[in-house]
Amino acid sequence: MKRRIKDMLAAIVYFLYEKGILHNRIQVHTVDETIDELLHTEKSMVRFGDGEIVMIKGGDLMLQKASPEIAAGLAKILRYAEDDLIVTIPGIFETLSDHRKASRQFWKDHLLFCRKTYEKYCNPDRIYYSTFVSRCYYYLEDRSGVGAQFAKIRKIWENRDVVIVEGTRTHNGVGNDLLDTARSVERIICPPSDAYGALPEILEACLGYDRDRLFLLSVGVAAKFLAVELFERGYRVLDIGNMDMEYEWYVRRSPGKCRLEKHEVEGEAANREAGYREYLSQVKVWL
Fold it and tell me: Cα–Cα distances in Å, from 200 out to 26, 77, 203, 223, 229?
């Protein structure tokens, strides 16, 4: 009964949004516009998904405990007004017509509980970019254009020296060709949970690289703060979140979410046993 009531309320709130009865002052570029901006400029990117919005409200995530410091910091980044650092949020305010049914329901529920947080903290003087740039497969009803989108995404780091900052089980590009266009790949491996507490050590490891490196971040909430720190020091940095997972689902043509075996591999011995020797050769720092 509670679920049915929640779904009904979520549907009503979203109907009011679509009809313009609830005023929407938040503007978001499309996924294609976001990809093109990253491909044709040297701008950096920090991404906000549903989890970061929940943390601004003070809620815990599975891999990061909440704190007032994190909430305040995320709210500040969400308002960030520097043109060369694009901030992404979910493009859910105009329509969900292109979403599959489960995704439509998820985002309607999200807006029911988080609409006021967006309205309070988003900067009304900027147009945001789409967080779905890194989650461009699962949510879609029609996936016929995803291949072209990923082809353009892979060009962003074509012939670039890339540094991946990721968790112990993330394995960006392992077992697929997502990063094969890069000239070189090196990795900084971070704690799998509560990485925010290790930010000083992670930042120190990143600053050991020259500014010609392109940083790709997959360290959850900590990536937002790390992205800003590196950007302000003159690096180009892209917070790609779970892009590799979405790419795996795309490559496998998975109808929905599916288990990825590499996410269960952790530690040097386990990676060697799994045959991830190239991955191990790319790891320069274990934190």
Answer: 33, 18, 5, 12, 10
Please report, for the chain, the start and end positions of each structural domain, with discontinuous segments joined by +. 2-286
Amino acid letter, 239: D
Computed on alpha carbons and rounded to an integer, the radius of gyration of the chain in Å comes to 19
Distances (CA, A) of 54 to 67, 149, 220: 12, 28, 13
Confidence label for 206 from pLDDT (cuts 50, 70 and 90): very high
Cβ atoms within 10 Å, residue 33: 15
Write down how long the chain is: 287
Please report, for residues 29, 79, 283, the alpha-carbon distance to residue 52 in angstroms, rounded to integers and kept in the order given. Answer: 19, 13, 28
Grouping H, G, I as helix, E, B as strand and the rest as coil, residue 130 is strand
3-state DSSP call for residue 64? strand
Helices 222-232 and 199-206 cross at an angle (nearest 10°) of 40
Residue pair 129/34 in contact (Cβ under 8 Å)? The answer is: yes
pLDDT the model gives residue 23: 64
Amino acid at 146: V
Buried b (16+ CB within 10 A) or exposed e, 104-142: bbbbbbbbbbbbebbeebbeeeeebbbbbbbbbbbbbee
Asked if pLDDT for residue 265 goes beyond 70, the answer is yes
Beta sheet of 214-218, edge-to-edge order: 129-130, 85-89, 44-47, 236-239, 214-218, 161-167, 184-190, 283-286
Contact 244, 137 (CB under 8 A): no
Token output for 207: 């600053």
Which ranges of the chain does DSSP label H, i.e. alpha helix?
2-18, 31-40, 50-56, 68-78, 101-121, 146-156, 199-206, 222-232, 243-252, 268-273, 277-282
Least confident piece of the model among 14-28, 61-75, 196-210: 14-28
* pTM value > 0.70: yes
